[in-house]
Amino acid sequence: MSGWDGHLLGLVAGVGAILLVATLIGAVLRRRVPADGAPMVENFNARVKAWWAMVALIALAFLGGKTGLTVLFALCSFAALREFMTLTRTRRADHWAAAASFFVVLPVQYYLVWTDWYGLYSVFIPVYAFLLLPIVAVFRGDSADFLGRVAETQWALMTCVFCLSHVPALLYLSIPGFEGGNILLIAFLVFVVQFSDVMQYVFGKLFGRARIAPHVSPSKTVAGFVGGVLSASLAGACLWWITPFSFVQAGLIALVITLMGFLGGLVMSAIKRDRGVKDWGHVIPGHGGFIDRLDSVIFSAPIFFHMVRYWWSVT
Amino acid sequence: MKHTAARLTAMLIVLAARFITAVRGIWQGVEPVPEQRIYFANHSSNGDFVLIWTALPARIRARTRPVAGSDYWLRSPVKTFVIRDVFDAVLIDRNPETRREDPVAAMTEALDGGASLILFPEGTRNTTDARLLPFKPGLFHLARARPEVPLVPVWIENLNRVMPKGEIVPIPLICTVTFGAAIRVAPDEDKAAFLSRAAAALLATGSLEERAA
Predict the structure, then answer these.
(1) Which of A30, A83, A133, A144 is paired with A103 by a 20 to 30 Å CA distance?
(2) Which residues of B are less than 8 Å from A78 in CB distance?
(3) What is the distance between the alpha carbons of residues B150 and B153, in angstroms, rounded to a whole number?
(4) How far apart are CA A9 and CA A66, in angstroms?
(5) DSSP A221
(6) Does the beta-carbon distance from A95 to B167 stay under 8 Å?
(7) Secondary structure of B31-77 as H, E, C letters
(8) Do the chains contact at A83 and B158, CB–CB below 8 Å?
(9) A86 and chain B: CB distance < 8 Å anywhere?
(10) Which residues of B touch A95 (CB under 8 A)?
(11) What is the pLDDT of residues A84-127, one digit of tens each?
(12) CA B22: distance to chain centroid?
């Protein structure tokens, strides 16, 4: 076992400890809270339970290495794209373009990441897919709301596939002195962003009065935003020892990705609101759909990838 | 051998349906309990009964038989295997000129055997913009023949976008199957009144789904 494996094990054990505490708090709350607070407690317990499953899943994927993580995020992309396309106003004439998005574009993007073909995977969706899919759609000869339909399909691919594929892409960066440790970049990104989401929820529930964007998201509060971003940035800084960054660098990077994560959550909330739904799906009990859990990762992953690539990687 | 192949195919079909549609059953008007029922649903895709079947809990699924048109399903050996051995469907000939058995008699016999039924009273797939096509009278005659069996309206949402008539490749989209409150035929109710009440119950189940989502 290399030193990096020990770090990863330590982080997973730490997350396990946090979940254990959360589970105990949930059990105490269930006994103490009066009936009118019960739905919130049940939601909290459902969330914690789902977290156990999600942590177990990603830990399993860590064992599977590059292939395991690429497959896991490809499946996450599939589930996210399924939720996104459900809310689009695509018509019969988009059938081929939509089918191609799921069964050609998505697998090809992840295959390119898996084979480390940076030059192609970084342009495959924004150049090739974005030009070819409208061509496929136009052959069906239906011009009603054409721009809207094309734009919705492209944004679905951009967020659910392109952005998310930058998570496994982190495994292929060559950072001098950090060989064999890239898996920890994913652990750092996912932990910091999700910890920020959790702390936003906790601070929001405990001290949240003023809503930060009442017209877009009823659940985001000023206290949640400040508390979540600051505590997750601090947590990120404290994790500098598992990264190639210094304490200050890790804190600044964590600040950037938590801000991106928060803003990503806002953007995705605006889309939900426009389409009149509360959650993207129902697959993850207590949380909603895959996009509800991944929106912050979607917006922070490409930025994190390019920061590390530009300043630390030699590729 | 054939039995094992059928069990295996059933498992694969349920898995594929979950992968493509992440289907979720919403039990709004009735509970998922193993009582005998007639589920009647809107029909827009050949996958409709597969979706209802997948949304049912396994122990209920095992005792639920779809009603399907033999004129469509007995056309090829693969279709015949799927509809007969995998789904154990009650096959009826929709064409009055060629049929030898009364469809209502076939369905009544299946009910007397203890099975629940899935049936599509529109009779054919709806490819129009209307929410429902006019109901065929079979539902009324069946309800009159076995008035003690509750009729549960089932609204299937989105499957027509997953696999529109004529397309070969399905698009993965989230589907829901909503089970509404059961209805029964009243003793003095005539055919037209009952059919319009049944259609209204199904449409109401569809709008329940919209509020739930």
Answers:
(1) A144
(2) 172
(3) 10
(4) 17
(5) B
(6) yes
(7) CCCCCCCEEEECCCCCCHHHHHHHHCCHHHHCCEEEEEEHHHHCCCH
(8) no
(9) yes
(10) 164, 167, 169, 171
(11) 999 999 888 999 999 999 999 999 999 999 999 999 999 999 99
(12) 18
